[in-house]
Amino acid sequence: MEIYKDKNADIESRVSDLLSRMSDEEKVGQMLQVSYNTLSGEDYEKYKTLGVGSFLHVLGEECDEIREKAASTRLGIPPLLGIDAIHGHALRNGATVFPSQLAASCSFNRELIKEMGRVTAREVCADGLDWTFSPVLCIGRDLRWGRVDETFGEDSYVVGEMGKAIIEGYEDENLIISCAKHYIAYGEATGGRDAYDSEVTERKIREVFLPPFKKAVDAGCGSVMTAYGSIDAKPLTANKRLLREILKDELGFKGFVVTDWENVRSLVTNQHFAENLTDASRAAIEAGNDMSMNTHEFYECVLSLLKNKKIHMSLIDDAVRRILRVKFRLGLFDGKKRPEKSVIACEGHKKINHELARESIVLLKNDSALPLDGDTKTIAVIGPNADDVRALYGDWTYFSHPEPKRDVKPLGEYYTVLDGMREVFKKSRILYEKGCDIFGHENETDKAVKAAKKADVVICVLGDCLAQNGEYRDRADISLTPIQLELLKRLKGTQKKLIAVLVNCKPLCIQYLKENCDAVIEMFNGGDYGGLAAAELIAGRFNPSGKLTISFPRHSAQTPCYYNGYGGWHGGRYMDIDEGNVYDFGDGLSFSEYEYSNLRLSKKTVTENDVVEVSVDVKNNGAMDGKETVMLFVNDVVSSILTPVKELKAFEKVFIGAGEKKTVTLRLDVKDLALVTHGLKRVVEKGEFEIMVGSNTKKYIKDTLTVV
Ligand code: NOJ
Predict the structure, then answer these.
(1) pLDDT the model gives residue 61
(2) pLDDT of residue 43
């Protein structure tokens, strides 16, 4: 009896049975992932019939063909088809494009992030795929890095909470698996240089970078991707300590580990760690990688290692077991039922996307300029990003991947800010002028000024563009480009009410905007409904509730500028710029003022096994219903090693009606007050902790907690 074909047998028995029937070639085939998109015709035939474990960057109809070929191999093991569905299934033109991870994190709304995961899973699965290479659990601390847009911001706790929520959403209905990446400290590469060495210690990894991956593992994440780079000169791909000992053994990760793109080859070509691909393949497997993304020679190399007894069969078996387990779990052997294609960008999905766009957008400044009167006669909408869907979407859509496409037309519904303004301000006359492009190749600022002079209000939409966003796009200078500043200065000169909307992949230096605009709105890459949400915010159709999950420096050289650093800097500032950031983590206004009072702790003296309930009353003093994210920060007053001046330990987003007062209770597990010692132990030290509860890092009320 072929147990592996029996739907009713338990997964472990099916895996064991199948494994016992597999040849070396079939096993090693499972450990290879091949990029569909970059294969030549001949290679494509070869790999389709070879029985490789996975293909990536396949879409729709192509999936069926690949599956059919796999079904006709000796054991008929189905391939796992993977895609970068990073903010929605966005490599498929016409599918839902959500706000970027960074934008979405500003919603501080776990439920909506989970919905984003669910929607994406349905669309990915309906399109024939099984696996998304998401979420990114890197931490966005060095703003020069080109991939900050892919992070959930600068705070390890927020990254972990959002990561957990989206993984739960992706895997909730068992349609696809997710992939927590890039393991580990990839965003911390020295100088913000993508894929470069990170100078972090294991202690630091355990303090800052590991906790989000632990949450991902606990949430049942199906796969983890190994980062490109190295840590303290050891390539992650060959890092047995981090992959095998910590991720698999200590955290108990049961899924499989896939390398990033060509990591095995990179051990030879970029990192000069291995002499040849055979040594590189062995190092990668021994370290704990189960599947190689590309580097097709991996297949022959591993077979030769087996033949020459240079690698233990137990390592191969373990890797294949992990991959097969996922395939059985997803029902790929049992004629998987997929959602109808009609779910792709269906009305229900659009509604969730629109809601997320509204909750993600951040109002940074409002000098009584907003909401704008619905009867405003003439509005000038100006700026390079006012009507640019590519900038609106950001990276990881069909515009940029798998290969860049310039002129493709979006098949789905979307709103640039200009579209949104036309939709929302139907009674007003809307004048549009681009003014300039991001780099100043086009300079039509004269026309823009002319339009502004005719208007009652100017909406200027600035930011960055796709060419400044993503892999290979690290920036030494994160200022607004000079032409944009010039445009803004000229618009300011018209003395009209000036509202800036930012469409950008990550924080830029926007001090001029803060000082000179009447209102500033940050949407990052807002997805299909970003432009509509911006216009609705301007019109006051909803009460903004987004808050920054990342800080904005005054100057490029001020990065990193995250809020939860250690104390101890003489003077606390660079001598040639003012102190502090332009905007901090947690900043974000609403049309309501929230008043905090009556902070109380269920216990004031605790041991490390306690859980404390921290309650606070929050009153919405405004005339509009709203949602407020209540944040709880702690400070370990005296500690045996440096600890952050302030660190987020809990947050809740709550609805509070106009004029209403609500009690909000946050749960603080005393174990979460632990620091990581140089002996790599998590220890809650005795003594006092400051507990700060409020709207952001600056506006809070506080009490103390004593650990005995
Ligand atoms: C490289 C990127 O680093 C990774 O995030 C992505 O999932 C893979 N390529 C596949 O496209």
Answers:
(1) 85
(2) 80
Q: Where in the chain is the domain with CATH 2.60.40.10?
A: 594-707
Q: What per-residue confidence (pLDDT) applies to 39? A: 80
**11-341 has which CATH code?**
3.20.20.300
Distance 566 CA to ligand 1 centre (A): 32
The pLDDT, as a whole number, for residue 246 is 98
- Tell me 189's DSSP state: -
CB 133 less than 6 A from any atom of ligand 1: yes
What superfamily would CATH give domain 350-558? Glycoside hydrolase family 3 C-terminal domain (3.40.50.1700)
Residue 49 sits at φ, ψ, to 5 deg, of: -95, -10
Residues of the chain with pLDDT under 50: none
Tokens describing residue 446: 């004269």
Q: Is the domain 594-707 a CATH 3.30.70.60 member? A: no
Residue with tokens 């190689």: 292
3-class secondary structure per residue, 102-132: HHHHCCCCHHHHHHHHHHHHHHHHHCCCCEE
Query: What number does the ligand 1 atom closest to the CA of 133 have?
Result: 7
What pLDDT is attached to residue 38? 78
Q: Compute how many other C-beta atoms are within 10 angstroms of the C-beta atom of residue 640.
A: 12
Q: Is 387 in the pocket of ligand 1 (CB under 6 A)?
A: no
How much is the pLDDT for 691?
Answer: 98
Are 343 and 123 spatial neighbours (Cβ–Cβ below 8 Å)?
A: yes
For CATH 3.20.20.300, the residue range(s) in the chain are: 11-341
Q: Give the residue, by CA position, lying nearest to ligand 1 atom 1.
A: 261
**Cβ–Cβ < 8 Å for 237, 259:** yes
Are the CB atoms for 136 and 178 separated by under 8 Å? no
What is the distance in A from the centroid of ligand 1 to the CA of 260? Answer: 6
| CA 470 to ligand 1 center in whole angstroms | 11
Q: DSSP string spanning 127-161?
A: TT--EE---B------TTSTTGGGSS-S-HHHHHH
